Amino acid sequence: MADCADLLFELGTEELPPVALKKLSDALTQSFVDGLKRANLPHGEVHAYATPRRLALWIESCSTAQPDRETERRGPAVQAAFDADGNPTKAAQGFARSCQTTVDQLERLSTDKGEWLVHRFQEKGKPTLELLPGIAEEALNRLPIPKRMRWGSSEAQFVRPVQWLLFLLGEQVVPCRLLDTDAGDQTRGHRFHHPQPIRVDRPDRYRQLLQESGYVIADFNERRERIRQQVSQTAAAIGGQAPIDEALLDEVTGLVEWPVPISAGFEERFLEVPHEALISTMKKNQKYFHLVDQQGQLMNHFITIANVDSPKPELIKEGNERVVRPRLSDAMFFWQQDGKQSLASRIDSLKSVLFQQKLGSMHDKSQRVATLAGLIAGQIGGDSAMAERAGMLSRCDLMTEMVYEFPDMQGIMGRYQARRDGEPDEIAQALDEFYMPRYSGDSLPQTKTGIAVSLAERLDTLVGIFGIGMKPSGDKDPFALRRAALGALRIMREHSLNLNLHALLEVAAEQLQTAITEADCVEQVYNFMLERLKGIYLEQQLPVDLFEAVAAIRPESVADFDRRVAAVAGFRKLAAADALAAANKRIHNILKKSDQPIPASVDPALFDSTQEQNLHRVIEQKVEEITPLMEQTAYESVLQSLSTLQAPVDQFFDEVMVMAEDPAIRGNRLALLNRLNQLFLGVADISLLQAR
């Protein structure tokens, strides 16, 4: 490598948004490295640093200059560059002057389009010091900052006011001014422990100087893991465990430069409140790590991470306890007030809350969901009456003070309140499961009542919104219909529910018939869900033609779809699979192109070849063989049985002219092929399978 030196860039600011800190650091790193690449500046390892008050990069062994390169500049065509006597024309002379050379020093370039004068020269690479300001400025401009701000009288714009700029190449300051700030060789330590400037003499000493002198752990990941270890050790010292939320850990890491754990607590009486509400306020409002005991029950202790190593940590402890107490008191007040009314007593209040203008109130929706849930529960072996009750109560917790204050408690509050009301435990559990899955990869409802209510909710929403012509378009999906469809499919698929999806959509549409304006909304929803199902299978690396082969026959249930997919996947591995797929494709095309009615049954009296007789005999044998297998949904066994048809099918096509001149014989042969086709279509349309 040419001469090189370590590069250090640090932008010092007021406190950056903690949630966005890691994203800003990653974006700065990527943009800066991309800039070096575009400038053809080789370099070594890249180290990114991010704290609340700085974004920084240490890049090892960065080239101090661009490499020299061979450059070619094309001039006029030789024909225009010289006259008839071979003397250079003004065009050639002008080109030579612009290249600061003479015509006789120019070279010639031959191409298929003619011959040209050309000047080749060595272009000296620019010094890195000259290129770095532009690279840094572009990297800063590319940062994903939704709203930039100005400060003081400066016209510069950034996410927070800039306080200093450290920019070194080796031991030399990169001369530049960015965001109205001149580059220098000084950084700053911790705001309280070391507010004075710290001179950085070499880039490779930056991290060590900050940590040893400045009370700053510059590396985001190192600071993050230190906090994780501190929280775990502090929790263990109290006799508890800290279930660490990774998003909270990232946010806290973005709030501190010198993490110090402080354990604190609150009165045991607050543990009467649903623990999820207490945890929510500790995490979201106060950025505390909650603790649980060995049985997983919430303890009346928490851990906060201070950004200062105080000589009196008890003052920080007392301050945090004093701050959190009013929030916990509010949660207790809401819990006690909500307990004065049962969920059932809130049903009528849902009439005043609109679900959607054309689809009625939350009360109307609850009634529809209750009816559909009762039907589903009956079909999956659940208690229909219990499912209907859960459906009516499913939204009542939205009317509580607790959910109004803590929106994340919807469903969870329903479960707690239902138990307090004395509702059966399955109903209480179902009120929480009603919202499951809340997001991709979330847990599914497990009780039959919860499954029925959760599924009914999603199907009613899908049919209702599609029915009034508001289906998703592009990236617009205000009613989260894609998520609703995926949730419903996961429930049916992962619980292997033999539910007739089309029939359930019809029931949902019947309940909404006065509101629905789209006549084919059931088909629209079914196809929409089929597309989502396709996405699920493709994510699992299922070949698209295999999915299409099963989808073509529109199975009644998602569970049945799954069984057919597994069967076709097994069939595809058989030696006869490709030949039978090709034969089915040929049969499909013949039947589709036929312009005469195909008889409903085959007449053996019209056979005039042994191949027809053999194929007919084997088909009838297969009908008897696979009929009980189809009743047992043993699709894989069905296809294995049908795979033995390859030989008689091949013989038939080799020796028999299907489109015979005699209409009766032709029709009978078409009927025979149709009979064969229907055998395979009992499982899937294997004509859609592509040859391997």
From TrEMBL:
GO biological process entries: arginyl-tRNA aminoacylation; glycyl-tRNA aminoacylation
Principal location: cytoplasm
Catalysis: reaction(s): tRNA(Gly) + glycine + ATP = glycyl-tRNA(Gly) + AMP + diphosphate
Residues passing through the membrane, by range: none
Pfam family, any one: DALR_1
UniProtKB keywords: Aminoacyl-tRNA synthetase, ATP-binding, Cytoplasm, Ligase, Nucleotide-binding, Protein biosynthesis
Family: Belongs to the class-II aminoacyl-tRNA synthetase family.
NCBIfam families: glyS
Listed name of the protein: Glycine--tRNA ligase beta subunit
